[in-house]
Amino acid sequence: MSNDKLRPETVAAHALRATDQTTGAVVPPLYLSTTYARDENYEPLLKENYVRNGSPNLWQAEDILAELEHGKAALLFASGMAAITTLFETIPQGAHVVSLDVMYYNTREWLQRLEAKGRITLTLVDSNIPGALVGAIRSNTDLVWIETPINPTWDVIDIEEVAKAAHKVGAILAVDATATGAVTTQPLTFGADIVFHSVTKYLNGHSDVLAGGLITRDVNPRWNELKWLRTKSSSPLAPFDCWLLMRGMRTLFVRYAQASNNALAIARHFSNHPKVERVLYPGLATHPSYAIARRQMTNGYGGMMSLLLKSDFAGSKKFCTLLKVIIPATSLGGVESLAEHRKTVEGPTSTLPDNLVRLSIGIENVNDLVADIEQALKEI
Ligand SMILES: *Cc1c(COP(=O)(O)O)cnc(C)c1O
Q1: Where in the chain is the domain with CATH 3.40.640.10?
Q2: In degrees, to the nearest 5, what angle opens at C-alpha 261 toward C-alphas 258 and 264?
């Protein structure tokens, strides 16, 4: 049966029918070999025969990722940051880049480093100012890099509007869609050129693989350059990590649905709590991005939220240590809920409020999570 007709939940659960052709193994074998022998005519048996260029487990995982994002092709990297910095390597010397002043801080710091070195010119905009993002795009803009929902405000950006503006000047739009888990928004269908995922997060979902993915709308010269760069910089995802990722992706949709349901319930519950100034969650009607989120996030609002506590820097940090079920750790998108005081984690360049606690809501029983947050709030 053609996979074109299958819905994404089925594609994920069956790992795109990765059943082994020779043995019938329903779970595909793991090929750890770094090198592959040639045949009797000295012809390669596979399309690549050295693991830095590609491997069977890598191709299987990439095909699933491309399918889930409605893309033509996907590339998996040894980390999210490896994927991001490889894409930035394709920016022509001196070209202009538009991005956000609040977003995943390592990406912002890397762009600022490229600007400081004279490699690019950079405009970072406040996505809350209407029209600011589109207005920052110039005739020499090469890349618009956005995140949606934005970490850690969970503001949602209208991808279609930004894509149109970028394409008018011949720029490409790349979207960090990590928080969507490839479940609730497919940026390529809204006109984005490249989607990025920190695959470490929802796609793997078990906090045991570091990985990044790029997915493209078109296989074009820039995409081929990305592939070339990944090989030369030795950053493809290793076979065992690909194998673990394929296992993780089988349950992606049920994990994301449960995390979304839990998060919405928690966001609603704590919206009017005396110790909480505000809950930032795009699924709340009071969130500034709610209208766009409703249109663009069609399969749940995800498990990511932030609490602005009625407390100071020390109190908000202490809150994270008072939780007994939710784990005080960075990262997101795993089955277990995590909390972090984001300003402490981001360090001295952080512009975030002192009282912001980021929560990555997992798939636990929601009553245990609500009770845990309640008891910690009592203590601050
Ligand atoms: C974690 C994360 C990254 C970086 O990915 P790594 O896999 O940790 O290198 C980039 N963007 C967002 C939104 C993230 O959460």
Answers
A1: 3-249
A2: 145
